[in-house]
Structures are given as structure tokens and as C-alpha cells.
Amino acid sequence: xxxxxEKIGYVGKTIATLHWRSRKHLESRLxxxxxxxxxxxxxxxxxxxxxxxxxKDIAARLNITKGTASKVMKKLEDEGYIRxxxxxxxxRIKLVYLTDKAMNLVNRMKKIGKEWNDTLxxxxxxxxxxxxxxxxxxxxxxxEDAE
Length: 147
Fold this sequence. Notes:
globular; mainly alpha; single chain; Arc Repressor Mutant, subunit A; 3-stranded antiparallel beta sheet
């Protein structure tokens, strides 16, 4: 049987379809905890890279404009998920920190992500999963070199 991505003609289309389906699924699950996709992305960056990132750094990591990041962070701040503090010595820079309310969601968010990851790799052996991750990492590296 010919692989689906081979039928389509290129890997990018298959990856885009997987991304779209993943986002659609995760957005529906995030509604259960009251978060939008964008809000989840900001919290996830802070979870992965640690508190105290600048708004500019968060925007860069998410590949969004500073204005978009600021709007999402304002909503997260209003809802009590983050707090922003001016940096000592440079009041123009705001550092972003997760609150206890956000930290209480971390395990739930990790569980949602793990469940989806398990769905994506259902039927794969551990060796196949490892190989898949290695291929995906190589593809990411290839795109960095192409930019």
C-alpha cells in the first residue's frame, strides 16, 4: 500500500494536515479548561522555558508579533494566569511569570498533550517512535538551514 503522504506528493502537506487536526483537537480540549489556543501557547512557552521571559522573547518563540503577544498576555493577566513585572533597571521591559492559577493547569495541560501524542503514535513501537522523532528533528533542522 502506498503511503498517504506519497500519494499527496509531498511531506509538507501531510505535516500541515497533522498540524491542523492536532490544533483542532487540542482547541476543543482546551475549552474544557477555559483557554484559547493562543493563551495555551503562551503558558506552554513559560512552562518549557521558565518564568521571567520578556514579552518580546515570548513573541519571538511563538513567531507572532509583539502586539499580538501583548493582547494575549493582557487577557491571561486579566484572567489571573500570568503576572507581568517591569524589569529592574529598564522599565520598558516587562517580564512574564506564571501564577499559581496557571501552575494548577500545568498537569492537566500535560495530560491533554500526552493523550494526543499517544493518539498520533498509536500502533508504533518504541523504536519507531524514536526513529520518527529523529526524522522530525532532522526535518526541523533542514528548515532552519533553508530560512
